[in-house]
Amino acid sequence: MSELPAPPSTRQLGSSDIAISPIAWGMWRLAEDGRTVSEAAALVHAALDAGITLLDTADIYGFDGASGFGDAEALLGEVLAAEPGLRGRMVLATKGGILPPLPYDQSADYLRSAIDASLRRLKVDSVDLWQVHRPDILAHPQEVARVLDDAVTAGKIRTLGVSNFTVHQTAALNQFLGHKLVSTQPEISPLRITCFENGELDQAMMLGLAPLAWSPLGGGRLAKPETARDKAVAAELDRVGAAQGVSRTVAAYSWLMAHPAGIVPIIGSQQAGRIAEGTAAMQVRWTREDWYAVLVAARGERLP
Q1: Is 61 contained in some domain?
Q2: 50 is a domain residue
Q3: Residue 143 placed within a domain
Q4: Residue 32, class by beta-carbon neighbours within 10 Å (0-12 exposed, 13-18 middle, 19+ buried)?
Q5: What are the φ and ψ backbone dihedral angles of 52, each rounded to 5 degrees?
Q6: Over pLDDT 70: what percentage of the chain?
């Protein structure tokens, strides 16, 4: 039985000239548990040393509902200030546009201030990818586009992306942008498969967007499946993983990576070993039969 193509060693970030690793590391929980600068630096090194070049954060990361807004960016900024050479080894991505407790604000004034604040916390002159974190329904996409284009022209941002946008929201913003989108960041996992059928991945392929998958392990539910559906998905991943000598986690990453849209899973672990382990997904090969078996288990019903 023929195998699906192996993921390339690098992918392009949309239509840009920026090459990224086929798997990324996210810093949602970087600032938790009183992590020190040296401890955070060890995680950055673990990712880079494993060949993971795309590092993804956001200004909201670290917020606990009352305080901590910007903490993850600030901690990473301290790491970069202590070791300036690290910046050139990574593709640095961040996000903005969430302003607790509004919750979302993409007005021109706030967007400008949010971009500048992220750069100050990160202690950098520019980021490689800046993403609108969640759509502000009250912001006209033309107004948002004008601010983002200005930031690219000013050299503060190299490329632009969106996160948690619908197909139509993505199309509307991209229509008004002079510097077109290069990425989209939806939630995708073997337990959240809506992107495969609602047009988001089809649009990504049509527009040449790199799909960056947040929560690729289903928010931890794959590690401890409880429902019959989750257990069925885990069993299929275990079957393929056992045959190829990898964990369920690695099998889950590789299942996403086998999609022709070039899905880039974002590893959420803040443990050096787990970050490095994720890169083994590049060696896993899927057949169509095995890939669809996971999808059928996730659907809970046979394909038509």
Answers
A1: yes
A2: yes
A3: yes
A4: middle
A5: -85, 115
A6: 100
**DSSP summary character for residue 44:** H
- pLDDT average, residue stretch 31-47: 96
Asked if the model's pLDDT at residue 1 lies above 90, the reply is no
Q: What CATH number does residue 119 fall under?
A: 3.20.20.100
How confident is the model over 193-218, as a mean pLDDT?
97
Find out whether 249 and 223 touch, Cβ atoms under 8 Å.
yes
pLDDT digits (tens, 9 = 90+) for 73-114: 999 999 999 999 999 999 999 999 999 999 999 999 999 999
| Contacts of 170 by beta carbon, 8 Å cutoff, 6+ apart | 162, 181, 184, 200, 203, 207, 209
Length of the chain: 304
Whether the CA torsion 196, 200, 202, 204 is positive or negative: it is negative
136 pLDDT more than 90: yes
Q: What is the value of pTM for the model shown? A: 0.96
Name the helix (H) or strand (E) containing 26.
strand 24-26
Number of folded domains that form the chain = 1
Structural domain contains residue 231: no
Residues involved in catalysis: 61
pLDDT digits (tens, 9 = 90+) for 44-58: 999 999 999 999 999
Sequential DSSP letters for 287-303: BHHHHHHHHHHHHTS--
Q: Give yes or no for a contact between 112 and 146, defined as CB atoms under 8 angstroms apart.
A: no
* Structural domain harbouring 140: 11-220+259-283
Closest CA to 263 of 286, 240, 245: 286
From CA 80, how far away is CA 68, in angstroms rounded?
A: 19
The stretch 194-199 carries a mean pLDDT of: 96
Q: How distant, in Å, are the alpha carbons of 101, 210, 235, 257 from that of 189? A: 28, 16, 15, 11
Instruction: Give strand pairing partners of 91.
Output: 54
Residue 61 three-state SS: coil
Per-residue pLDDT for 245 more than 80? Answer: yes
